[in-house]
Structure formats: structure tokens, C-alpha cells
Write a structure and sequence with these properties.
Shape: elongated
Structural class: mainly alpha
Radius of gyration: 19 Å
Helix content: 40-55%
Low-confidence stretches: 166-198
Order of helices and strands: HEHHHEHHEHHEHEE
Strand content: 5-15%
Mean pLDDT: 79
Largest sheet: 2 strands, antiparallel
Strand order of the largest sheet: 1-2
């Protein structure tokens, strides 16, 4: 599957909306690396994207004096394995994030306005258009009012992000996701990820 995504990234970078023949050189440009990683279940922050791009861009500068502007499949695999987190996002990380932005300490609830304000003003801020685009992708409606007035980490994980509760006893996996064992307790949540064999 990784190779399929890599090939699609090559096509995307050569203008996917054409019927004219394309010449694929087995490489993808730096701009495609974050999209490819996201397709594989790793969602780097903007700072991580910049670090990854700089790592690749300057990887041969001391030997050749030139910048690297594209990478091949093997280089991408090394990059992906070195940068993706070992563990998936777990229930505890989502709870900690909710607590950090002001969730009620007794019930763990956060009101919608506080969540929206944090997403628009804290950390790597989203614009309102980006937030609405994310909501449309996640819940099918771009209206902020579609979110409940109050939600906790579990509601957010299951009903907004679409995470499924991870259970070690559950041998049945949905056909559209491949959960990677996280090494965490059975109350962990796993975002859809793909296994990598190196």
C-alpha cells in the first residue's frame, strides 16, 4: 500500500488531471512528503513538516553544495520510519490535550466555544476556513454549531475524529482501517494507520 501511495504522489506532482502521458522518474518532490505521510496515518505538525523538509533539503549539501528537491521510495521509507511516532494517539493524550486547553477537571468536559477559541488562537493556529474545512471532512458539515455545546475527550475522539475504541480482545477490525498495536492499555484509541515492514 505504501508503494501505491508513493506512485499516486508521483502522479499528483505531475498534474493528475490530464490525459496526456507523463514521465515518472521514481521520485516525489519535497512538497508531497507531508501529504504522503498523512495518507499513511502520521499527521506531522507544521514545525515537523518544516524539519522534515529541511532534513531532506540539506541532506547532501555538505558533499555536493546543492539542495535536494526530491526523494525516491527507499529514501521516503527511511524518512517515514525515522519520523513517525512509535505509538498511536491514545486516550490519555486526548484527555491531556483537553485538560491543557481548559477542560473541567471534574467531568473532563470542554465547552464548544473554548475548543474553537483554542483551535483558532493556540499552538499551530487554524484559520476559520481551515477549521470549517476540517469539520466538513470529519463530520460532514462545516458549521461549528454542529458540535455539541459541551464535549469530553471520548466524545471528541469518537464522534468528531472518528477514532474507534481499541480493544485488545477484539480480533475483528473494520475493513477500512488497520490498527497498529500501540502497546497501551485496552482503553486506547487508534487512528487509522498502516503497518510498515522495513
Amino acid at each position: 500500500e505504501i508503494r501505491d501511495y508513493f506512485h499516486y504522489s508521483q502522479i499528483r506532482s505531475k498534474n493528475e488531471n490530464t490525459t496526456r502521458p507523463r514521465r515518472l522518474d521514481g521520485k516525489i518532490p519535497l512538497q508531497e512528503i507531508p501529504n504522503l505521510m498523512r495518507a499513511l496515518g502520521y499527521y506531522p505538525s507544521e514545525q515537523e513538516v518544516e524539519n522534515i523538509a529541511n532534513e531532506v533539503k540539506y541532506s547532501e549539501f555538505t558533499q555536493t553544495g546543492e539542495y535536494v528537491s526530491s526523494i525516491d521510495f527507499d529514501q521516503f521509507i527511511k524518512l517515514y520510519v525515522n519520523h513517525r511516532p512509535v505509538f498511536g494517539v491514545g486516550k490519555q493524550q486526548i484527555v491531556e490535550a483537553f485538560n491543557a486547553i481548559g477542560a473541567d477537571l471534574t467531568g473532563g468536559f470542554l465547552n464548544r466555544d473554548s475548543l474553537i477559541a483554542a483551535l483558532l488562537k493556540e499552538g499551530e493556529c487554524l484559520s476559520m476556513a481551515e477549521l470549517e474545512n476540517c469539520l466538513k471532512s470529519l463530520i460532514g458539515d462545516s458549521s461549528i454549531r454542529m458540535l455539541p455545546d459541551e464535549l469530553d475527550a471520548q466524545d471528541f475522539a469518537e464522534n468528531v475524529l472518528g477514532f474507534e475504541e481499541y480493544s485488545a480482545q477484539d480480533s475483528q477490525q473494520p475493513s477500512n482501517t488497520l490498527n497498529v498495536y500501540s502497546g497501551q492499555d485496552e482503553d486506547s484509541y487508534q487512528s487509522p494507520q498502516h503497518s510498515v515492514e522495513v
